[in-house]
Write a structure and sequence with these properties.
Elements (H helix, E strand, L loop, with lengths): L9 H11 L2 H6 L4 H9 L5 H10 L4 H16 L7 H19 L8 H11 L7 H18 L4 H16 L9 H9 L4 H13 L24
Helix pairs in contact: 1-3, 4-5, 5-7, 7-9, 8-9, 10-11
Length: about 220
């Protein structure tokens, strides 16, 4: 088995990966940056390998970085010319893949998985407004309902909030779900999150706040700031 360490072995590693593929080296060291780079250089970028690597090594940074490279190529059209519809479908499939991984309790707070998900929601070609609202109204409430102390889920909710606002589709001045959860959970970071939300959502310099609640429906009790 070839271990890729140092430039002296790069040529041999390239030959080895070209002959046997990436899988044998992943079994030895899935965090080997050079191995992933060589695999991409040789065009070994199949989704089956990427899926299996994320399932086997979900807490390894390199497997998620590789996945982002593949997705970025699809979006940019380097891999092949996608229509907007097929690219959006790819984003929906990616979220479904991540949802399946989150069902494993070992991944409930997986920093790398959530970091990838946060990267994903910031790609409007991949994640539509509808899918973004699903993250806000379904995904994060489900995760935080299971465990209100899940810091990774709170960070993701904050990222979703900021992306909704960046796209101009979050018009509420509050996070009603977090406020409700705070009434039943005594954990200091939740009030801190709520204070940050209020500061963000009532910032007059951040844009006009319309009279709609966070689901996008008209709210007669809210005022325009």
């Amino acid at each position: 088995m070839v271990s890729i360490r140092g430039s002296a072995r790069v040529r041999r590693a390239r030959e080895h990966i070209g002959e046997t593929g990436l899988e044998p080296i992943l079994q030895l060291n899935p965090a080997d940056y050079t191995a992933w780079e060589i695999a991409r250089e040789l065009g070994q970028e199949d989704w089956e390998t990427a899926d299996n690597a994320c399932r086997k090594f979900p807490k390894n940074y390199q497997v998620w970085q590789h996945r982002r490279v593949l997705l970025s190529k699809r979006v940019s059209g380097e891999e092949h010319q996608d229509s907007a519809t097929s690219t959006a479908l790819l984003g929906a499939q990616e979220l479904a893949f991540l949802d399946a991984l989150l069902e494993d309790p070992e991944n409930a707070k997986n920093y790398h998985l959530y970091s990838h998900r946060q990267w994903l929601i910031r790609q409007p070609q991949l994640v539509s407004e509808e899918l973004l609202w699903r993250e806000w109204n379904i995904t994060t409430p489900r995760q935080l309902g299971h465990d209100p102390l899940n810091n990774s889920a709170w960070q993701h909710r904050w990222a979703v909030l900021n992306e909704l606002r960046r796209r101009g589709c979050f018009q509420s001045d509050r996070d009603a779900f977090a406020e409700q959860l705070a009434q039943n959970t005594s954990w200091p970071p939740i009030p801190e999150y709520l204070r940050a939300c209020r500061a963000l959502l009532t910032d007059k310099d951040s844009g006009e706040q319309s009279s709609r609640d966070e689901t996008g429906e008209p709210n007669e009790t809210s005022s325009t700031i």
